[in-house]
Specification:
This protein is an alpha/beta fold. It has a domain at 157-382: 3-Layer(aba) Sandwich (Rossmann fold). It has helices at 11-14, 29-38, 56-61, 76-84, 108-112, 115-118, 124-133, 135-138, 141-162, 181-195, 208-217, 221-231, 241-255, 290-300, 312-326, 342-348, 352-359, 364-367, 374-382; strands spanning 25-26, 46-48, 68-70, 88-90, 167-171, 199-202, 264-266, 283-284, 305-307, 337-340, 368-371. The strands form two sheets. A seven-stranded parallel beta sheet has the order 8-7-6-5-9-10-11, sandwiched between helices. The chain has a four-stranded parallel beta sheet with strand order 1-2-3-4. Helix 2 (29-38) links the parallel strand 1 and strand 2 (46-48). Helix 10 (181-195) crosses helix 11, helix 10 (181-195) packs antiparallel against helix 12 and helix 12 (221-231) packs antiparallel against helix 13 (241-255). The longest helix is centred in the middle third of the chain and has 22 residues, at 141-162.
Length: 383
């Protein structure tokens, strides 16, 4: 079932369609060229993360009242002229380790650039986490604004990337180690979903999340097994993020990732910055706000959610996913919520009895499933 026919109950709140007439953001050179060639009045438009110098002549004579320029490159003389004539310019901050007005998702190479030569602390990922934890930025209004704008920009990029795709979310614990049977099962689940045309969306971190992204990204079942064997040499990101990530980047390269349609996305957060992002994603939407990130992950997983064994964070995600399904209007199509691991969810972390109680007599109860294996979960979702 497609995203158009199976709409998540929260989608109207967070989902913004790129074909909406009110969606007037330009964030690539081609779009800016088309806009300037059309002669469209620029009032109400947002130019995001663009180099405006090649367009200075046009902008100097255009009606720019109400135009908003977000980051990018704006020569000083042009900036002064635009502001005098009614535009608003919000520049980037060179002290911020990320581009707040970025117009695209991160790649693993964006976040891990410099890893091999200068170590993990030198990477954008590590520096962004350190910046977000600094006392001087935690309660600083400007830094708060930059984080919020960054997360909104990343969300826009994610919504555009996933638009029209059948997305299945996979959740699970970050502590699951490479080389374990559960890690392998999660990877095979990711591959089964992606091989059937689904796009796999995870929390983008290590453990079960990495495994599902890995499986989805791998082009064949044999490639999954080869990658699992290679990765088992470094089971965890502890004690060395460098060793964990460097090996993963090598395996990603061996998989030939990047060829063909996107199959795998991750949504990690710097709120849990001690958990490094995994590299087996076609695109990474990394947020500062964990609350927003959690909502986006659930909203975008309109094709269903699979929950692998996990602890407190995973339990939080289960009930966060359950709440909109519980309150969904009568007749609303609901995505399946599939928990994997009978003993784990009934005895170790007994969430299942509470879910069943909540679902009794409600449509929620019809989409709740508890299975033992990832093969059963895939079968449920793929029909």
């Amino acid at each position: 079932m497609t995203r158009e026919t199976r709409r998540h109950p929260l989608r109207d709140r967070l989902g913004r369609r790129p074909d909406d007439p009110a969606y007037r953001e330009v964030h690539d050179e081609g779009g800016l060229r088309r806009l300037t060639a059309s002669g469209t009045p620029l009032a109400g438009w947002r130019l995001q993360g663009l180099d405006l110098e090649p367009h200075a002549t046009y902008l100097s004579r255009a009606d720019v009242r109400g135009l908003v320029v977000l980051g990018g490159r704006v020569p000083d003389e042009l900036a002064r002229d635009l502001v005098v004539r009614g535009a608003v310019i919000i520049p980037s901050d060179p002290t911020c380790p990320v581009e707040p007005f970025r117009a695209r998702l991160y790649s693993p190479f964006d976040l891990y650039g410099g890893l091999e030569t200068a170590g993990y602390p030198s990477t954008v990922d590590a520096r962004a986490y350190a910046w977000s934890r600094e006392a001087r930025t935690q309660h600083d209004a400007w830094a708060t604004l930059l984080r919020a704008v960054h997360d909104d920009a990343v969300q826009d990029a994610l919504v555009e990337a996933l638009h029209g795709l059948d997305v299945v979310g996979v959740m699970g614990g970050h502590a699951l180690e490479r080389g374990s049977s559960d890690y392998a099962d999660a990877a095979r689940l990711g591959h089964a979903l992606a091989d059937a045309g689904r796009v796999v969306l995870t929390g983008g971190g290590p453990g079960a999340m990495e495994a599902a992204n890995l499986g989805a990204l791998a082009p064949t079942a044999d490639a999954v097994e080869t990658a699992l064997g290679r990765l088992s040499a470094v089971p965890s990101f502890r004690p060395s993020v460098e060793a964990w990530a460097e090996l993963a980047l090598q395996v990603r390269d061996e998989l030939g990732a990047g060829d063909g349609p996107a199959r795998s996305y991750g949504i990690p957060t710097w709120f849990y910055g001690h958990e490094p992002p995994n590299v087996f994603c076609d695109g990474i939407a990394k947020y500062f706000s964990n609350a927003l990130r959690e909502d986006v992950l659930l909203v975008q997983s309109a094709g269903g959610l699979v929950v692998l064994p996990g602890a407190a964070g995973t339990v939080q995600e289960i009930f966060q996913a359950c709440t909109p399904l519980y309150y969904a209007p009568e007749g609303e199509p609901l995505p399946p919520l599939v928990l994997v691991g009978l003993e784990h969810w009934t005895e170790t972390v007994p969430v299942w009895p509470a879910l069943r109680a909540l679902g009794t007599g409600r449509p929620l109860g019809e989409v709740l499933h508890l299975v033992e294996t990832t093969e059963e979960a895939a079968s449920l979702l793929l029909g």
